[in-house]
Amino acid sequence: MWYEDVVCQLNKEQVYTRQQIYEALVNEKTELTYNSFKWIISKMVDNGIISRKQRGEYVLQSNPISGKQIYKPLMNEQLQEISEKIKARFPHVNFVCFASVQLNEFLNHLIGRNTIFIMVEKYAIDFVFRFLQEETTVHILLKPSKKEWDAYCTGDNIVMLNLVSESPKSVDEYRGMCIEQLLVDIVAEKNFQYLYSRSELLYIYF
Fold first, then answer.
1. pLDDT score for 64
2. pLDDT bracket for residue 66 (50, 70, 90)
3. What span, in angstroms and rounded, lies between the C-alpha atoms of 104 and 113?
4. How far does Cα 176 stand from its chain's mean position?
5. Dihedral angle of Cα 183, 185, 188, 189, to the nearest 10 degrees
6. Cα separation, 190 vs 33, whole angstroms
7. Residues spanned by CATH 1.10.10 within the chain?
8. How far apart are alpha carbons 113 and 195 in whole angstroms?
9. Segment of 75-79, 142-146, 166-170, 202-206 carrying the highest mean pLDDT
């Protein structure tokens, strides 16, 4: 990932503050927001690229990218909360969750606003949709058309879609989308295509 390449150029013997790491990444991607940076630094800690020395200070691992990492989607608190609510109310319904900012580790041009995708089995999607309307203040769109997307997806939103029956099942406790499904849906699911330019596919797959 681009941010790993940047961090790996830093001095492994030095202790870095959050601000110093942020400035190093901004030098590479000037459009990087601090919210996206917080997601990135959490991802690097989870993947063993950097370690926390103490509050607000980090050190690099000796061999930060010595092998390929297993993809593990980072679930923010909002996504975890929504997932837990659905699991508690509909324990037998299969669904997966995905936040659009998770694509930032693959893209050259970063996604600013966050769209949460909830993909639910077709027979249950209307029930889950009505449930979430009562349980959250976030604007929710149910299987939006391109016109609806352009009109209403102006900030942070929840988008609900049908879950394809053949989709690989998530093994994550919060029903995060597995890498196999993500790589397919980035191209096949039209609502995902609204998130990025087609020219970005080069950065996703290579």
1. 44
2. very low
3. 11
4. 9
5. -160
6. 26
7. 2-60
8. 10
9. 142-146
> Which amino acid would we find at residue 97?
C
Residue 188, CA distances (Å) to 47, 94, 134, 164, 184 in order: 28, 20, 30, 11, 6
Is residue 36 within 8 A of residue 55, CB to CB? The reply is: no
Rounded-to-integer distance, Cα 39 and Cα 110, Å: 12
Per the DSSP assignment, residues forming a β-bridge with 115 are 157
Rounded to 5 degrees, φ, ψ at 153 are -90, 70
Residue-wise DSSP of the chain: -HHHHHHTTS-TTS-EEHHHHHHHHHHH-TT--HHHHHHHHHHHHHTTSEEEEETTEEEE-SSTTSSPPPP-PPPPHHHHHHHHHHHHH-TT--EEEEEGGGGGGT-SSPP-S-EEEEEE-GGGHHHHHHHHHHH--SEEEES--HHHHHHH-SSSEEEEEEPPTTSPPP-STT-BPPHHHHHHHHHH-HHHHTTS-GGGHHHHH-
**Side-chain half-sphere exposure of 41, counting CA atoms within 13 A:** 24
pLDDT, average across residues 163-186: 69
- CATH of segment(s) 2-60: 1.10.10
C-alpha distance across the termini of the chain, in Å: 10
